[in-house]
Amino acid sequence: MARALINVPKTAKRGQIIEIKSLISHIMETGFRRTETGQIIPRNILTELLCTYNGAEIFRATMYPAVAANPFVTFFTVAKESGTIVFKWTGDRGFEQTETASITVEG
Amino acid sequence: MQRSKQSRRAVLGGLAGAAVAAIVRVEPASATPAAMKSAIRTVVGEAQIKKGKVHIDVPALVENGNSVALTVQVDSPMSEGDHVKAIHVFNELNPQPNVISAYLGPHAGFAKISTRFRLADTQTIVAIAEMSDGAFWSASADVVVTIPACLEQL
Amino acid sequence: MTRRQLSYRAAAAAVVASLAVSALAQIAPSERRSGYADLSPETKAMQDDDTANPGMLSVLDGEALWNAKAGAVQLACADCHGKAEESMKGVAARYPAFDTARGQPVDLEQRINICRAEHQKTSAYKAEDKDLLALSAYVGRQSRAMPITAGSDERLKPFIAKGEKLFTERQGQLNLSCAQCHDERWGKHLGSSLIPQAHPTGYPIYRLEWQSVGSLQRRLRNCTSGMRAQPFDYGALENVELELFLMVRARGMPLETPAVRP
User: Fold this and answer.
1) Which chains form contacts with chain B, at 3 or more CB pairs under 8 Å?
2) What sign has the CA pseudo-torsion C159, C164, C170, C176?
3) What is the ipTM of this complex?
4) Three-class DSSP labels, A50-103
């Protein structure tokens, strides 16, 4: 389990555009680095972040080795209704992790 | 020569066991502007790429190529009929031309994404926005990357 | 001698004289700057936002470790120290501290390892172990924004003096001292890198160059090897003396742990 930090506002007005931030601990080994003796260090990266809001996809990112270690991704979404925002990261070596946040939408 | 064969075999052996079906490059792609153009064509196809609407916010001179702050914002009403479907970011001199692809839609409200990425050398980066009407808009930015004065040895 | 030869001679003499005199030059308290001040706006923003700062991932790991039972006696840090927010407030700001049993200063990572061995009855972490740094980051976070107070214990005097000697003595292949860059030429550039004053105001830091969190000892070993001098081993008293001197030199400056640096 990698450590993750997500920043979703706890409350919002209906229709308000909110910023969502995500940060997860991951080495994002590019597969292009070499050890001191010249061996390639095998690639090990996160390849996708998928966010759903009450089940509907609101954001998806495909990540490549050029994304920096401990991937930080932010985006915007319209606060439509109260509920749950789910973050799912997938990556090399079968990596899969899910984090959730609740949001209360008023008005 | 011997050494690189060995490592390629080792990586392939490792990949055979990998559960994920992603296509993984075993050796660095030709790190050239041509590779970037080709990667862009893979996304855009034969469509014309227009300059405009896309704004890249990236430092002109980075503190460290390992982690460069990047924000891409696209002018768009983000309505059902007129919105950004995706933002694709490319680079020209890293071993691989792709950086990140972000898929949006009218639910985003605002077409703006931020991340931190790696730059291997001073180069140009390109951001392409794919719109709901099938049009492609782009912008580019030049970034200077230097290595730290005292190289770490440990 | 021609006028030009005379002026070259005078210039050379002035440089030699300035180097001799300024070996003692220290930064005036009003001129002290944390490395934070020299960061780009983007990196400052990364440090300032707890949900964007990768060092905070380490702090969260540290919080979990603080509360986890460990060792033969199955004790968590929390079992003796309670809530870190209360018991650890100001602690990182006064480290390295004098260890009575050992008769010498120890830094925070060493203190954590001493607790693990003596109280939790388990093995000490190796240097730069992810979990050790996480605990150090978590404890350090409890002193965030508090002024550095290290070095007030009288028994630390000889060790601070030794640390100052290490900081001001020339060393290595380039025959450079730390002071020549960090006391005398801060604000100038070495290659494309801005020379900081080198105050340890946010350790353990998330260093962009490392792409991970690391300790002050790691940074000192980097600097020393970068200067083409032989670094002291992890855990060597010399490292702790130097850390202690640097913290005393930074006394009064606020701690920023977990800081982000290039």
Assistant:
1) A, C
2) positive
3) 0.95
4) EEEECCEEEEEEEECCCECCCCEEEEEEECCCCEEEEEEEEECCCEEEEEEEEE
Cβ distance B153 to C226 less than 8 Å, yes or no, reads yes
Asked whether the beta carbons of residue A71 and residue B116 sit closer than 8 angstroms, the reply is yes
Split at pLDDT 50, 70, 90, the class of C9 is low
Report in angstroms the alpha-carbon separations of A50 from A29, A96, B41, B128, C215: 20, 11, 25, 20, 34
Would you state the structure tokens that stand for residue C105, as one six-digit string? 């200063």
DSSP 3-state of C1: coil
pLDDT at C17: 43
Q: Does A3 touch chain C (CB under 8 A)?
A: yes
Q: Helix H segments across chain B?
A: 2-16, 33-44
Task: List the domain range (segments joined by +) for residue A70.
Answer: 4-35+44-106
Which residue shows structure tokens 């039972």? C69
State the average pLDDT for chain C: 91
Q: What's the structural domain count of chain A?
A: 1
Is A33 a residue whose pLDDT tops 50? yes
C211 reaches B (C-beta below 8 A):
yes
What's the pTM value of the predicted model, to 2 decimals?
0.87
Contacts of B63 in chain C (CB under 8 A): 39-40, 43, 208, 262
Q: How far apart are the C-alpha atoms of C105 and C96, rounded to whole Å? A: 6
Report pLDDT for A1. 86
Tokens of A12: 């919002």
For residue A53, pLDDT over 50 is answered with yes
Q: In what order do the strands lie in the sheet with C212-214?
A: C212-214, C205-207, C260-261
CATH number at residue A23: 2.60.40.10
Q: What is the mean pLDDT of residues C82-106?
A: 97
Q: Could you tell me if A24 and A97 are in contact, meaning their C-beta atoms sit under 8 angstroms apart?
A: yes
Low-confidence ranges of chain B (pLDDT < 50): 1-29
- Fold adopted by B31-147: Immunoglobulin-like (2.60.40)
Cβ C42–B151 below 8 Å, yes or no? no
Q: Do the chains contact at A23 and C211, CB–CB below 8 Å?
A: no
